[in-house]
Structure formats: C-alpha cells, structure tokens
Amino acid sequence: MTAKTINRVIAGAMGLAAVGAVVVGCSSDKSTAAGAKVSTGGNTAVKVDGSDLAGLDLNSVTCVKQAGKITVASGAVGGQQGLGVVMTDEATPKVQSLGLVYDGSALSVSDNMGVKVGSADVKVDGSTYTISGEASGADMKNPMAGMITKPFTITVSCS
C-alpha cells in the first residue's frame, strides 16, 4: 500500500470514531427521532486480537437502524479507543465500513473505489449482531513499519 492509501485508511477510521461520538452524543436521550431505532448497552462485547478493547466503555456503544443502514458506534474514551461500524440493514447484513482505535492505532475495514482493506462478516441471531474479521491500519507507534492487521469480534444488540 502507498503512503496515500495508508493516510486514507487512517483518516477513514478516525472519521468513523468521530461519527461514533456524535451518534452517542445525539442519542443519549434514547428517543427515536425521525424513525430511527436506537439501542444502547445490552450484551455488547468488543474484542481485538483476542482481548477486550481496553478503555472502551461498552455502555457508550449505540446501535441505530435508519434509512436502510445499521450504525454501531461508541464515544472515544479519553480521546483514544473508539468504534464505528456502518452496515446494510438486510437479512444478511454487509459491513460497508468499520473503524476502531486499538492501542493508539486506527484500524479499518472498507471496500471503496477498488481499494479493499481488511474483511468483515456479520452473523445475526434475533436482535444480536456478531461482526468478525480482520481490520488493518498503520501502526501509529511505528508508522514506517507499514500496515498491521488485527482480528476482531464485535457483538451488539440492535432492535
């Protein structure tokens, strides 16, 4: 990957984390504005590289169904860890974009303009969504080392 592609991946993941903070901030009253269905808390779990995503307040994770999309997001804790996922709202959802901050590195899954980064699959059991795969991004502790890839699993209730 080129430096330009790495920068786009980082910017995309950070943008998703920022969107997550906005969604959480706007939905804290748990109302259903403009037909959106909002769920918070529940049986949420976020694991990266086999461990819980440290620093992430699971109670801040919000799931919003609106306009044919499902958005899962969290507020960043201390400006560090965060999560943002956008997927289709259909019988077999597909992840359109995913961004998370892990150990100071912005990791993402996307397939835009022919550039595919990472991978993700979604399994649905009632109102529980399990998103798993591999997210990639730049190692912010050593950006010149190139891309890193980490396995992840996100479980969230979304009614």
UniProtKB/TrEMBL annotation:
Domain of life where this protein originates: Bacteria
Any one GO CC term of the record: membrane
Keywords, ordered alphabetically: Cell membrane, Lipoprotein, Membrane, Palmitate, Signal
InterPro entries: LpqH
Pfam families, alphabetized: Myco_19_kDa
Full protein name: Lipoprotein LpqH
